[in-house]
Amino acid sequence: MKTPFKLSNDWVFNKEIENIKKSKNNVNDVKNSNNNNNNNNNNNNNNNNNNNNNNNNNNNNNNNNNNNNNNNNNNNNNNNIDLDMFNSLQLKLLKKCLSLGILKDSDDKKSFIIVEDLLKMAIYCFPLLNDPKQLELIGEIIIWGFLLDDIFEEIPINKKQFESQQSIWLFGESNEICSQFDLWAIELRKKIKGFCGKNEILFNRFINSGITTIEGTLSFQCGNYSSVDQLENFFNIRIQNSSVGFLNNFNHLFILKSLPTSILYDPILEKMEKIQSLLLGLINDLYSYKKEVLLNEEKKNIIYLFLNKQKQHQEQQGQQKKKNKEKEIVDQNDDNQIINSIKKVYDLINDYISTYQYLEIKLKDKYFNTFKLKSQEIEFFKIINSQKYLIYGFIKYSIESRRYDCKELNQLLFNFKN
């Protein structure tokens, strides 16, 4: 998939699922896409053999891109998710949400779409994983994160719910269970503990990431960002509430076998994760702005902050002839100012992408020819690639998501790119 952002070719995982058909309530409707999926499975075999003469031109291009990325072609345990597996996972997640009362009606098209889209996000963001149990857990965590954000959007903030979730992730239990959502968090923590086994380092990273996500989400919802002058504070909280650290841990857990976990504390890699968090936050703001305006929830979106800045500048320069103090500073009908603000966010995203790519080069240089085992070198590159794939997968999800419906925005962004 082409994106409007300035990504190098190696951000794209060339064997990911393409063209998953939209379905309503009968998930078997999407089986007609099996031919596409079989082609992708063939692509997996072609890429493992690199020089297979049966590759089509597109596969050759993708293989060349992978070969240019040192050791990228060694990712042999790649995502082979077929549509039957997708359907099965989707039904499991739907039943789970229904049993917890999170989704109200199995015949509700909106509920089905939410689960389907978020499961696609899990598959798009984690193309190196192919175990259904792994993807089912990741799908549950993604839904948990979205619902956590929705819960903390409620005014007034449910402090008991916050304290209960925090206690659950810290201790595995809570003195006061507030909802089925809390019981679900207990179950998720147990599942993560089971996958981690004796690896206490990774399990502790999961717990720390979970607490950071909860605290960051609460801080973000309680914050008051009236102008772009508060951007640094806005970004610091965005890093916390993006859940990127939490999601990266899944790749670390399922990829690392021989590479020491100490690599995860490398300052360059940690800086890359912070930028990764900002990118997901900014991309989310960009694609969710239309939806947030319709729901009157846009005031914590960075586009809104840039719009405020423009209006404030106009007032200071005396360009605004009449000031109505009772009116919101932001006039959502001013298309030119909205476009200018979107352009600022778009440029900011590309600046961070450029910085991220620079840091990746420095990280690779730092560890060049330092690994004792070939398997360690392969895992090192998988970790690096997994973070890019997560960003790209989130972009792909945002572009396709029926939650956002951003065809006009995508056209505008491609115009910026060109």
Low-confidence parts lasting 5 or more residues at pLDDT below 50?
16-78, 325-330
Mean pLDDT reading = 77
Number of helices: 15
> Radius of gyration over alpha carbons?
22 Å
Helix content: 55-70%
Biggest beta sheet attributes: none
Number of strands: 0
The H-and-E topology, N to C, reads as: HHHHHHHHHHHHHHH
Termini separation: 17 Å
Structural class: mainly alpha
Estimated share of beta-strand residues:
under 5%
Shape: globular
If you had to describe this structure to a student in words, what would you say it looks like?
- This protein is mostly helical and about 425 residues long.
- It has 15 helices and no strands.
- The two termini are about 15 Å apart.
- The model is unreliable at about 15-80 and about 325-330 (pLDDT under 50).
Secondary-structure blueprint of this entry?
Blueprint: H1 34-49, H2 57-68, H3 83-99, H4 109-125, H5 132-152, H6 159-171, H7 180-196, H8 200-222, H9 231-241, H10 244-255, H11 267-294, H12 302-316, H13 335-366, H14 374-400, H15 407-417
Helix pairs in contact: 3-4, 3-5, 4-5, 4-14, 5-7, 5-8, 6-7, 6-8, 7-8, 8-9, 8-10, 9-11, 10-14, 11-13, 11-14, 12-13
